[in-house]
Amino acid sequence: MELNKDLLKKLIRMVSMTTPGEIGCDECFDKLEQFAELKLAGETPENAMPLVAEHLEKCGECRQEFTALLEALSELQV
Questions:
Q1: Which residues in the chain land under pLDDT 50?
Q2: Residue 16 located in a structural domain
Q3: CA gap 25, 52 in Å, rounded
Q4: Residue ranges making up the domain that contains 62
């Protein structure tokens, strides 16, 4: 990966958005099923699991995994 001006700006923005208690992708992935089940049950997983919600806001890859999981679980409920 080559560092360029746009990539450096993105990295600096991401670092500035970090918080002391935030979780990484591995921990988020471990909690995605529970987060999705709460969402499908009509609960507010953002309140119950704020660190996961925060991570999903910042991480496109985990957000894609969550969206795919949510769709799959929705199909199973039909």
A1: none
A2: no
A3: 9
A4: 22-77
Angle at 75 between CA 43 and CA 46, to 5 degrees: 25
pLDDT, residue 1, reads 62
11 in a structural domain: no
**Distances from the Cα of 19 to the Cαs of 3, 16, 76, in angstroms?**
24, 8, 36
Q: Looking up tokens 């450096």, which residue turns up?
A: 8
Q: How many domains does the chain have?
A: 1
pLDDT at 33: 95
What is the DSSP code (8-state) at residue 76? Answer: H
User: What is the per-residue pLDDT for 78?
Assistant: 61
Q: Cα 30 to the chain's mean position, in Å?
A: 11
User: Exposed, middle or buried by CB within 10 Å (0-12, 13-18, 19+), for 45?
Assistant: buried
